[in-house]
Amino acid sequence: MDLTSWSDGDTLWASCKDSHHVVRVRIDDPTDASVYPCGRRPVFVAVHPKSRAVYASLDQSSAIFCVEPDQTTKTIPVPQEHGSTPVGLLPGPDGNLWFGLLGSSSGGSGTFARINSDGSIAWFQLKAGAAMGAPFIHLGFPSDGGERIYLLGSSMADMMALNAVFEIGMSGGFEKVETQQTIAFPSQSSMSHRVLVTPHGIYVTELGACAVVHLQTARSPYGEGIDEVSDSYALWGGGMPPSHYRWP
What was the pLDDT predicted at 241? Predict the structure, then answer.
């Protein structure tokens, strides 16, 4: 059985992908457990930092499953106008849960979303540059608490999709998209899978290439910010500053 899990104090939550269940188990007493049937294929499970409700992303049902603190459950369908296939459910520095939409074999929609403490969902769609129509499989946040989101574009469902990390700058407490930067992988059709943001750069796993990729965002030394058309680091490769390279 394929499982993903989330530790919440003395409680472990797990999503059973193949049997379509979300399970709660007390770590110090495994006999204290609950099983919640849900829609097809819960991929990620996480506890909302504010409401304490538990959410699971149902990729094959294109919906979000919720276990409320009083143990009642509900299923929230993803509206078709936003896309399909929710994945990558993670808490952000704003105290809410975030996820992306992977889409299908015909492509994505460039959409990601925030689950608020009252259970409502705020939707964001990128409509410019390489991120327009991108399928997002995972996401991450910087350790400095800045208003940035790193969305992982993947060819997992659509082999023609761009494998890249999209750095999204936001404002107003993660209410408005302000900037975006695309960091494409050297290897494409690589089925990128997970992204981890660290102070030393961005690490991404690629299932199709059996590799871990290390990336860095481009920052201009002249203070004009990010410009995808004329990246001041482009001649040095992959958005990496020249000081990070050793030349023969």
Answer: 46
Dist. CA 120–CA 74, nearest whole Å: 13
Instruction: Pick the closest to residue 138 from 121, 116, 170, 163 (CA basis).
Output: 163
Whether residue 107 contacts residue 135, with contact meaning beta carbons closer than 8 Å, is answered with yes
Per-10-residue mean pLDDT of the chain, 248 residues long, equals: 70 92 93 95 94 96 96 96 94 96 93 97 94 95 90 93 92 94 86 89 88 74 53 42 46
Cα atoms found within 13 Å of the Cα of residue 200, Cβ hemisphere only: 4
Q: For the purposes of burial, counting CB atoms within 10 Å of the CB of 69, is it exposed (0-12), middle (13-18) or buried (19 or more)? A: exposed
DSSP 8-class letter at 247: -
Write the secondary structure of the chain as one string of H (helix), E (strand) and C (coil): CCEEEEEECCEEEEEECCCCEEEEEECCEEEEEEEEECCCCEEEEEECCCCCCEEEEECCCCEEEEECCCCCEEEEECCCCCCCCEEEEEECCCCCEEEEECCECCECCCEEEEECCCCCEEEEECCCHHHCCCCEEEEECCCCCCCEEEEEECCCCCCCCCCEEEEEEEECCCCEEEEEEEEECCCCCCCEEEEEEECCEEEEEECCCCEEEEECCCCCCCCCCCCCCCCCCHHHCCCCCHHHCCCC
- How many Å separate Cα 200 from the centre of its chain? 19
